[in-house]
Amino acid sequence: MRALVYESYGGPEVTSLRTVKKPELGAGKVLIRTRAAGLNPVDAMQREGTFKMIDPYEFPKIGGNEVSGIVEAVGPGVHAFAPGDQVIAKVDVNKLGAFAELVVVPARWTAKAPESIELVDAAGLPLVGLTAQQALGPEHLDLQPNERLLITGASGGVGLIAIQLAKLAGAHVTVTASKESEELVRRMGADELIDYKSQSVTEAVENSGKRFDKVFDLVGDDLPELFSVVRNGGEVVSLVGPPTPGSLTEVAQPNRTLLAAIAERVFSFKARGQAAKTGVKFEFFLMHPDGPGLTELVRLIDEGELEVIVDSRYPLEEYADAFERLESRRSKGKVLLEF
């Protein structure tokens, strides 16, 4: 089968399209023939070796974190899916493998694809949808009705889903984004926009006189500023800040968990201290695969409550252009690879 692999750690030049062995189907798993795979900033981070200290790869390594496709076969013990089903899934963060014509995923991490959108576009849901869902849910921010939420960098894939889920939760949503993205983020439900090119978050809060209850940070540029605009007892959850205790040990290889635990405490020591001084809780997190959570997101899509915004679609052979679009940081929504 064809797959997109990383030949080593590095930039775009280490990625190649090659023929590899088909994955083996085991008990409790499904074999998916890929229709599309979503690209995410974490793909570039994994390729570059951002996590190699806790999760070193053996090369060549098939990349990719999320997939849509058609079930080709199911392993022993799988009853929820059958060959021919259209499905989506978030794959294992250590094994990866979504950039391939055939992908094996645990059935418990898989969901039936939405019926109301194209199967290709459905590939853009698993990672961003679960990330936003888990960040805003009881595991982390536990967003409540009428709370004031700030989402930084909201015009990307995770941010656009997070705006919609936050509004469904009854929150008041302010976002940071460029003026060029205003129409899109407001269509998703944003109540207020802070144009980061012309105004800081601090200035916006001083002008309004209202602090935020919670922040979902997708930028990571200035955590002390975010801490200063949150009420005492509030919370900042970040996808890009320094890792906090417990965030890396869950994804580290078994022989790297102690190293991960040390890294979490050292790297986040300063940020945690700054947050504590302002009476704010700070947490970094990495999402985890979740079939039931994905099924709930699919329900919201099919009921017209949630929309996946697709920036662009590329044939597999044009993977270099797809990654260039992703890494340009100019995409509004998801970049997809079609198989």
TrEMBL record:
Keyword Oxidoreductase part of the UniProt annotation: yes
Cited PROSITE patterns: QOR_ZETA_CRYSTAL
Family annotation (SUPFAM superfamilies): GroES-like, NAD(P)-binding Rossmann-fold domains
Domain Enoyl reductase (ER) per the UniProt entry, residue ranges: 10-337
GO molecular function: oxidoreductase activity; zinc ion binding
Keywords: Oxidoreductase
InterPro entries with a match to the protein in the record: ADH-like_N, ER, GroES-like_sf, NAD(P)-bd_dom_sf, Quin_OxRdtase/zeta-crystal_CS, YIM1/Zinc_Alcohol_DH_Fams
Protein name, per record: Zinc-type alcohol dehydrogenase-like protein
Species name: Corynebacterium glaucum
